[in-house]
Amino acid sequence: MNTKEKPKYSVSRLNLYEHCPWAFKTVYLEGIPRAADEARATGQLLHAMVADYLERLIATGQPTDWVWARLATPSDGHPDVVEMWERFYNTFTLPPALVAPGVERQLAFDRKWEPVKFSSRRARFRMVLDFHFRQGSLAVLIDWKTNRTMNGVEKDLQLLAYGWGLKQALYPDVEEVLLRLHFLRYGREREVLLGPDDLKDVPGMLEEKIGRIEKDKHFDPAPGSFCGMCGVTAHCPVMSEALAPVEVLAPATREQAEKAASLLLTLQKMEKELSARLKEWVREYGAVQVGDLVYGPSQMVSYDLTPQNVCTTLLDAGLSREEIWGLLSINKTSLEKGLRKISRQDLFDLALKTGTVRFSERIDFYKTKS
Ligand code: SF4
């Protein structure tokens, strides 16, 4: 590692290194901020709103406060944020008689994994716990999730580190930690119980990961599916080098084809990031012209149509049902989404069987199995 002062660590920092050492170095050793990312911004905003709400409930001793929560709904918020927030406060009830609760609790540990103040110069590993409390000899830790995927609760390093941190710093006498993931997007929860055997090796596991980072001299870039999310694509050597070779534009050998695939992946990821940054610029300073094209805002018109209203109107206007069915389209994704919305996923296979199966080939990137 080529900095004089050793950096501080957290689970998300370790994860960034796992995804791409170059991205870790760029962000945490060189201090280059990551480009804005909608998913990260949504997560941060919702975490802050939920924390404010919980602090209010704990302070006032109420199980819910819908009036306050309704007023706290951001009037110009992204629909995703508003939907998750409304689902949360309409379904969440603060458990009664909480013992030693904490919201957005900041914890820090020194080199010997002993708790220290979050702001301490000795703090080497930091974490922020969303919501925790005690229930008898059990510690309960709730982690708010805004992910689209709702994977099963595996005892991964993040969960183990949070469970260990809670016991080590706040509830040293508890036997077990119940970790509950609350998926704000779906209003669903998943739980995992962490016992002494799960937690005892956590400092060693974290130490091993930190050791690998501190021994690293090269921080090689690791291009892959994370490229669109690293937030530092513009500072990545792989991205700029990939644009140079001309022979990849018309590959003739496997080696050139591999370079071409790497270039294509790069361009796909770069396009996303470039257009996000350019949109930001245009919003602030106005449209830009490239030859006879202008990149800037233009008015779009869209309609939210209700199938029932459209069908009734067309039937009333004299169209037959057969003519109307042809106008309505449904595909596997919309069918699955619609049934999930009304909690009738059990009908998915049945409905799918009414269609005919068509096979076609699509050439694109997909994840390797290993
Ligand atoms: S673009 Fe890919 S390879 Fe480059 S820094 Fe980001 S994650 Fe790493």
UniProtKB/TrEMBL annotation:
Stretches assigned to the PD-(D/E)XK endonuclease-like domain: 9-237
InterPro entries xrefs: PDDEXK-like_dom_sf, PDDEXK_AddAB-type, Restrct_endonuc-II-like
Protein name, entry field: PD-(D/E)XK endonuclease-like domain-containing protein
Source organism: Desulfobacca acetoxidans
Taxonomic lineage from the root: Bacteria, Pseudomonadati, Thermodesulfobacteriota, Desulfobaccia, Desulfobaccales
